[in-house]
UniProtKB/TrEMBL annotation:
Keywords: Membrane, Transmembrane, Transmembrane helix. NCBIfam families: tadE_like_DECH. Pfam families: Tad. The chain crosses the membrane at residues 12-39. The keyword Membrane applies. Residues 10-56 form the Putative Flp pilus-assembly TadG-like N-terminal domain. InterPro entries: Rv3654c-like, Tad_N. This is Rv3654c family TadE-like protein.
Length: 123
């Protein structure tokens, strides 16, 4: 050993373990973000489809898809078929406004569910 120079054996191992930990943390965070994006897209698709089904039911209550039923009931069924829960539904003139909730990825401390809203009508 040279005088005045500390022994550096094992320093590369410590650095490698630290970098592997950082990469693992970044990978886990990216996975959570990706899962949240997918869940939000699923929520938006469910909201869009539910609003369209409700508007179709409202526009033609004798249609086979609506069967003369409440547009919000139809929207709720379509939302449930898309693995979402109808949070709210209201009718404003000829438009159907819905809000749905989809269970979010509950990983790494993320505990919130994702919501999406949509509006559909004849105009």
């Amino acid at each position: 050993m040279t005088r005045g120079r500390p022994d550096q054996r094992g320093a590369a191992t410590v650095l490698t373990i630290a970098m592997a930990g950082v990469l693992l943390l970044v990978g886990a965070a990216a996975t959570v973000v990706g899962a949240m994006v997918v869940a939000h897209r699923r929520a938006q698709a469910a909201a869009d489809l539910a609003a369209l089904a409700g508007a179709a039911s409202l526009a033609d209550p004798t249609a086979p898809s609506g069967g003369g039923r409440d547009p919000c009931a139809v929207a709720g069924q379509v939302a449930a078929a898309n693995r979402a829960r109808l949070r709210s539904c209201r009718i404003e003139s000829a438009d159907v406004l819905v809000e749905v909730v989809v269970t979010g990825p509950h990983w790494l401390g993320q505990v919130h569910d994702l919501t999406a809203a949509a509006r559909a009508g004849p105009g």
